[in-house]
Amino acid sequence: MGYYGKLYLLSVALLAAGGGLAYLFGLWNRKTAGPLATLCSLGALIMAAMLWQGAPGPLGYEGLFPLSAGLSAAFRFGVGPFMGAVNLLATLFGFCVILYSLTYWRDDTQTPRFYAFALWATAGASVALCTRHLVVFLFAWELVTLMLYLLIGVGGPRARAGAAKTFSMLGFSDLALVLGIAGLYALGGANYWSIDFLRASGGVHVVGWTRVGLYLLFLIAALTKAGAVPLHTWIPAAAEHAPVPTMALLPASLDKLLGIVLLARVSLSFFELTLGLKILLMTIGVITIIAAVMMAMVQHELKRLLSFHAVSQVGYMVLGIGTGVPVGVAGGLFHMINNAIYKSLLFLSGGAVESRTGDL
Q1: Closest CA to 249 of 37, 78, 35
Q2: Are 235 and 307 in contact, with CB atoms under 8 Å apart?
Q3: Taking Cα atoms as reference points, which of 120, 117, 140 lies closest to residue 261?
């Protein structure tokens, strides 16, 4: 394993270990959890910037870890120019939210848990973005879902309903993802768990109802994570009582990045779509744009307004990827980055208003 492979593993290990230390140190002295989490997040951010600047592409090692008899998963990652930039953004969002949270909390009893969950969510997102194996991707994806549930729950008893709805909807979509990955194995064996192999082979030709259903399983997982209509309702439900830093970190940024990256991968690399499926994607995008922004216009609570607006912006990304043409795909992926930045900042700005006024 080369220098950049070690650097990447160190960045993930720093986030994972930092979460554990923040939680444990917080039990001893709550005031130490925030600064410790900030330092760990800053270290991971610096390493992510170094990877983006210098990583040659696929990195890691070819060693396998066993899953069951005859099955294994490769611990191999890829940090090219685009994915390196997205990984850098994910760690940047984590750092900014943790730094912001140092002065956000009035009651510090929950802060050690928040910092630990935020660091673990960032680590999971980094692995999901950069791994080249679908089984590793699945475990990282599930970790982010669990951390979202726990981060919403930091908001107290009133947030439990939103956390439960979020976990149930994302759990359903994660089941679809599991079935999709299993379906790929049934279709082409363990080779179809390699993202590089799927890309090099030109993807699965979507011919027949079986392969259409297989693509739809991945589509459900991606659209639910990103928050497209009609699989969007967990976002405004979570926003009602979730802490503002939670909304800025996951629904506004990390979940959107993961959902749209998965959508782009399955629509452009894993599968070769028919015209009908491209029209389906574009239709979902248009409906999401119009329906969600109309719902945003009638909201009187800032977090719910921002949530519906975040959903509407996902429609532009889905529409761009659905076109299947380079300029449309580039526009959709650019807006993914663009919206994640400004939506996260809008939530954090709302939190500043909340801290001054006590309400949104």
Answers
A1: 37
A2: yes
A3: 140
**Token reading at 342:** 């400004």
Backbone angles phi and psi of 73, in degrees to 5: -125, 135
CA quadruple 247, 250, 255, 258: dihedral sign: positive
The neighbouring-strand residues paired with 72 are 66
Handedness of CA 175, 179, 184, 185 (dihedral sign): positive
- β-strand partners of 77: 59, 131
User: pLDDT class for 74, splitting at 50, 70, 90?
Assistant: low
Under the banding of pLDDT at 50, 70 and 90, the label for residue 75 is low
CB 37 within 8 A of CB 22: yes
Query: Residue holding tokens 């939670």?
Result: 246
187 versus 281: which is more confidently predicted? Answer: 281
pLDDT per residue over 228-243, tens digit each? 988 888 888 888 888 8
Which of the four pLDDT bands, split at 50, 70 and 90, describes residue 101? confident
Can you state the angle between helices 275-297 and 209-226, rounded to 10 degrees? 20
Query: Looking at residues 76-102, what average pLDDT do you find?
Result: 88
Q: Which of 29, 36, 79, 72 is nearest to 58 (CA)?
A: 79
**Are the C-beta atoms of residues 279 and 247 closer than 8 Å to each other?**
no
Kindly report, residue by residue over 132-190, the tens digit of the pLDDT. Answer: 888 889 999 999 999 999 998 887 788 888 888 888 899 999 999 999 999 988 888 87
